[in-house]
Structures are given as structure tokens and as C-alpha cells.
């Protein structure tokens, strides 16, 4: 069977599983819609958290960034991995002990203010919409190649699927769908990695193959890749061109941004007890590590095979995968010297090949001539990764509107049933907006997601940390800190990422920090403003300080509640 037929079969089966789970586990109450009834077992929650966490950026784009950036691409690997550890150890148990449905709920009660709650809702919407844009773009990339549809039509198909199980099932449906999606995405990532590791190095473990010698040779894989890079004028694969200050700032922004991501934090409200939050965080870390330790190997395998396949070869003799990806517009050949050969070099004037880095993981099995069913499996894995995170983000958006704006502020006497309908309506609107950003993305998938992490770092992280560990922190400090941190970060991104006031280059960056890393500076601004304002205004009430004392010792149960 050809790739397209295999794709229809495998993707069709996975979609049927997702929809079947959504129908089986549809939410019947707001508690089931928001936190899956608070009764998800730790192992299942660990798998769901891993799927929620490993988005299209992790599955599709991270290995692509490392593949093209080499050492420089490792900042994403370090930042996202370190960030999850920070979240699991520093925040999850305490927030679970607090026992609310949403992150803005924590802000509203800890900072005894609906204004703080509203600011948190606005921050959650900014972060979630920026993040979900990357997911919908990933869905479009997969569909455009493997179902041979226009990339925009691919986004529409993804919108329809997410709409069905996120709007119907809420957190309960999403949780059990994400368990299935984790199994699919990790299988889809590991199978081709193992195949190609055996092909290139005779070692079936990709993590070891990455540091092994080429099959039938005494040359190490990374030494060969460095040589291929230098022959084409690129920097050595294992050398870095980013300034160390930017590497630090990006890594730190990704780390603390992770710890402030509302769609991941809410996962710890779905387990029965605080202890279960810790256990499920441990499970999730193991499940995430399987993919994250494999990504650098996949990146190196893909880069080696790509260069050896296309460099200085006749365009007319390119294998079918090349023309298949050309049709999507994500791979372009421009024969500048009309010799019929592909000049893939670092010099932009001479280079004839343009490759979208988001295709590297998806094209990798085709470049390596793996069986068609493996190619189709990778497509299903990419969709699982994108859809699982998109669903979690859409739930954050819908609950922020229905629970934190409508129920908590506008119409406190609203019935449970009406609140559920408002949540579903907000999810519908969110799907439409997410689809628009998927069709008109500001950058490649991982860069868009990195911006979301920067916004989370600059807004949520300081207010959560200070809310847990600093009793003197009050509502005035939290509100001023979040607004200032978010505002300066958004302004910087508009100036240097979206060229708000005209074209800019990296030479114009403040302190040499890229837009992806500026969330760290936004976070520092937030911390400083929060502490200064808190100490210049009245301390929080005694009962709020008692709450802080209580959550600092994350023992005992504490069911998620709504009052």
C-alpha cells in the first residue's frame, strides 16, 4: 500500500479512538468538565500530562530546530526539560493543596481580588492563544503532506476534530484521550528513530547511536556531521553561534515559562490527593524523558541523511519524498545557475534549497527509505502531539471565560448547567480563533511556542511563586507585577519579532537578548515591581496569610473545590 492509504488507515483509526473516548467520557458536570471529577489515577494523569506537555513543538519542531541549529538548538531541549522538573517539584503539590479549578482561581483567592483574577484570565488567554497557534500550524503541516490537502484545509480538519472532543468531553474527555495520544505519539517517535539508528550505526538504541560510529566505519556520527556541515560552509554541528547570554535567557525563559503554563498546572487538579500530584508528576517526567532524550539523535540522523541525499545531486534524480514535500511549499528548489544540480550551501546567494525546519521529523522516515506504514505512523504521532496540547489549551481558554469571568464575577448565581454551556460556547470561539492563527502563524511552530513560554514566564511565574512562598505578597503587588511583566514582554516581541516600528536585526536586541529569551527579563521586572509595590502597600489580610501557611505544607488531601 502507498503512504497515503496507510495514512488514511492509521490516522482514521486514531481519530476514531479519540472520538470514541470523548463520547464514552463526556462531561456531565462542571467539575468533570474542569478537572475530570478530580478522580484520575496518577499513572493515567502522568501519561495525559506528558501528552499535554509534548506538543507539536516537541514532536515536530524541536528535533527540526536541533537538526538545523545543532548545538544552538539545544536551548529548547534544556529549557523545556528543566522547566518541567521545576514545575513538578516547586509548584504542583502546593497548587494541588490549594485545590481550585483553574489558575486564575488561585490568583483570585490568594490575592483576594477579582481584579487579580481578571488580570490572570487575560494572561492565560495571551499565553494559550499564542501556544495554540503553534499546535494548529503543526496540524496543518501534517495534513498538507500526508493527506495531500492545502495546509489551510489541514488546519480546518484539525479544528473539527479538536472541537468535537474538547467541547464535548471537557477535561474528563481530554484526559483519557491524551492517554491514548501519548501512546500513539511516543510509539510514532521511537519506531523510526530505532530503525534509522540501526541503519546508520548498527545500534538499536537511538540515544547510544547518537554517540556511536557510522556502520562499517570508524568515524563517529557527529564527526561526520561536522565534516558535512563544514564542507557546505555551515558552522560545525557541535559548535554554537548564539551568545551565551542569549542561550541563558532563552533557557531560563523556557524553564520558568513551563512552570507558569496554565494548561499543564491544571492537570495536577485532576488527581484525588496531593500525594497523587507528586506521583503523577514523576510518571510524567519519565514519559517525557523518553522523547526528549531521543530528539537529539533524531535531529542528527535526519540532518546526515538529508545532506547526503540532496547536496550537489541532480534535481531530476531526487527520490519521491522530495517532490512530495515540494507540493506542500515547505521545500523549495530554485536552480540559480541552471545546472540541474542542487546547491545546498550556507551562502544565501548561492544556496538553491529552502527547507522548512518543521518538516524534518515528518520527512525523516521517507528520506531514510523506511516502510510506508512507518511514514504514516509518524503522521499520526504528529497529529496526536498537536491535538493533545491544543485540546488542553482550549480548555484553559474556555474555563477562564466561563468559570473565572462569568461564574466568579459577572453572574455568580448561574446554574451548573448554564455554566457548562458557556464553557462549551467559549471553547467553540477559541477553536475558531486558534484556527485563524494556525493559518496565519507568526513563525515556525517551536518559535511561536517559545513566545508563549516567554509570556508565561513574565506574567504567571512570579505571582505564583510569591503567592506560595511570600506571605507579605498582596494584591496590589501581584496586579502591578503581572501587568508590567506582560506589557514589557509583549512590547519587546512586537518591536523585534513583528517589526512594529520597522525592520530590526539581532544587532538591535537589548543586551543581545532575543524575543524568545526576553521573558526572563519580563519575569525579573515582574518580581521587582511585585515586591516593591507589596512592601509599599498594606499587607494581605490575616486569613489570606493563614492560607499561605497552609499550602506551604503540601500534605493531606484537599479536593478541588469551587468555593
Question: How would you portray this structure in words?
Answer:
This protein is globular. The protein has one domain: Sodium/glucose cotransporter, CATH 1.20.1730.10. The protein has a two-stranded antiparallel sheet with strand order 1-2. The model is unreliable at 556-563 (pLDDT under 50). It contains 22 helices and 2 strands. 56% of the residues are buried. It is mainly alpha-helical and 563 residues long.
Q: What labels would you give this structure?
A:
single chain; 563 residues; Sodium/glucose cotransporter; 70% helix; 1% strand; globular
What would you call the quaternary organization? single chain
Could you tell me how far the N terminus lies from the C terminus, measured between alpha carbons in angstroms?
Answer: 57 Å
Q: Point out poorly predicted stretches.
A: 556-563
CATH fold assignment: Sodium/glucose cotransporter
What is the name of the CATH architecture? Up-down Bundle
At the first level of CATH, what is the class?
Mainly Alpha
The count of β-strands is 2
Average the pLDDT over all residues and give the rounded result: 84
The biggest beta sheet is recorded as: 2 strands, antiparallel
Radius of gyration: 23 Å
Percentage of residues in DSSP E strands: under 5%
The total domain count is 1
Can you describe this structure in just a few lines?
The protein contains 22 helices and 2 strands. The chain has 563 residues and is an all-alpha fold.
